[in-house]
Amino acid sequence: MKMVSRYIKIMLLIIFFNPGISKSQTLPVGTPVLEDYYRRAQLLGKLDPNISFTVRPLYSSKSLNANNIFDPDSALEKRRDGNFNGIYRFWGKFGKIQLLPFTWENQYTTYHPYSINDGVMIPARGYQTSIEAGIYAKLGPLSFQLRPEVVYAENRTFPDFFKDQPDYIRAAWYSHLNYIDFPERFGDNIYKKFFLGQSSILLTVGPLSLGLSTENLWWGPGMRNSLMMSNTAPGFEHITFNTVRPIKTFIGSFEGQLIGGRLENSGFAPFDTTFEYSGNKVYAPKRNDWRYINGFVLSYQPKYFKGFFAGLTRTFIVYHNDMGDRIKDYLPIITPIDKKANYGEGESSVPGDQRASAFIRWVWGKEHAELYCEFLREDHAYDSRDMFLEPDHTHAYLFGFQKLMPLKREGQYLQVNLELTQLAQTGTNPERPTGSIYLHYAGISQGYTNRGQLLGAGIGPGSNMQSLQISWLKAYNRLGIQVERYVHNYDFYTSVVKDIRANWVDFSISALGEWNYKNLVFSGSLNVIRCYNYDFLYRPDASNPPSFWDPGKDVYNCQGKVSVMYRF
């Protein structure tokens, strides 16, 4: 109690006597249109070049050059003619209350679930919708953001995973699910949930912020995928200590975040938990305990190398009931990065799951372009020698490029974005078995998930994706197409299925659109997907005479998305 009392006194002193107060309102990860708008603005030289865009959510500050983070060019403010703008100020600049945008997102999927970077939404067939709204209040350096989210999913039935596969493949699949909380379907009924969503309570002083949050996080430079933190899963409860703007020093600028949080189980089991193979039940129930996650991201921009960012991330997960009460139990990320300190037997003295990554982002302002990449390693190396000899053991990587090309009409651009994500293992050393990224084989049976969805790249364990976007741009407005090749769980295919004709690959073409009209921001997409060998099931259309390479019976899946955001 003495420590709590002392902490409260220190906070009160900071509140009433600190002259340097920063804004701490956030632009949530996944905000339609606006997130990409700010990133493009940096490529066009209209935004602070010290912002890395590798530590998100973004915070409203002088760096973003916007009085209202949801009105970047102040167009709404200029058009109001004195009407209420959703912001009420009191006690001079000390107090502020603001209505946050109302966002309504909808999607419909025709054949089977398809879900990447959609937050509280789940992988589900049929109609699904989510609503997000809230209020932001600030009193000096203290801020309160209440932005709950509600989701409804029709959650219709779809073809059972592996129902028509041989028993040995089905057995391997259910065994695979023993190492990750990754349900094929979220129950047998309509799915309805309420989340605190993008909410937080923060104390912000200067460039630093400390508080509690349930917001989604995005770590790393990726745009379509992120290896460590993305918004594929709902946000989780966490304590956060982070920068709200770049900290400039004599050697360069720094951004970062340190978290300690709580990951929840989905509560949903696979389709058939009673399946037996060779007389034994294959599926093992999950441990009923929440998981503690500790992680950090750090981004650095050298002082004399403008536009270049380099960074590191690391996360560590342990079951709550296995934790101790020492500092290192709450900060396991400070433990050695290799296994040698633990005699090579595991990642820690208790069952735990760690991963680390390194990334770079290089912005070429004059060319309106950027290049970025990230490399992740799932398993500890034994020591630095082991890391040097086999850096690709349990690895994943991401590579991307974006460029804006001015068109003849002023303010219009052609945007090209290419991103490659590789999670599948190469198997370069058959003497050293590797597991799939985000699964854990030594104690954490839920893997790297929260509420049954992935914290990292939404394409899933063992998968790869190649994505190309080409768009016409003008301010907020965008019209374009996206072409993607999505390889599902190549690790499972190479280790179990092994039929060279049965690799499950999706080829998709999407029409994309974003448009701003007064207070409204619209966005939508129509995605047509041809699924080759859905569920790794190869069913040839026999020719006469039959051929080994007869085409299979593939399926089509379509997904339409529409969202509208009203800004006050």
Write the SSE topology:
Blueprint: H1 2-17, E1 26-27, H2 34-43, E2 55-56, E3 58-59, H3 75-79, E4 87-90, E5 95-109, E6 126-139, E7 142-146, E8 149-153, H4 167-176, E9 191-195, E10 200-205, E11 208-213, E12 218-219, E13 237-243, E14 247-249, E15 252-263, E16 276-277, E17 280-281, E18 291-302, E19 308-319, H5 327-330, E20 352-364, E21 369-377, H6 384-389, E22 395-406, E23 412-422, E24 449-450, E25 453-454, E26 464-474, E27 477-487, H7 490-497, E28 505-517, E29 520-532, E30 555-566
Antiparallel strand pairs: 1-3, 2-12, 4-5, 5-6, 5-30, 6-7, 6-8, 7-10, 8-9, 10-11, 11-13, 13-15, 14-15, 15-18, 16-17, 18-19, 19-20, 20-21, 21-22, 22-23, 23-26, 24-25, 26-27, 27-28, 28-29, 29-30
Summed up:
It contains seven helices and 30 strands. The protein is mainly beta and 568 residues long.
Count of strand segments: 30
CATH superfamily: Capsule assembly protein Wzi
Classify the beta-strand content into a percent band. Answer: 35-45%
- CATH topology label: Porin
Largest sheet: 18 strands, antiparallel, barrel
Mean pLDDT: 89
Low-confidence stretches: 1-21
Radius of gyration: 24 Å
The coarse silhouette is globular
Distance between the termini: 43 Å
What is the CATH first-level class name? Mainly Beta
Helix content: 10-25%
How many H/I helical runs?
7
Structural class: mainly beta
CATH-defined architecture = Beta Barrel
Overall tally of structural domains: 1
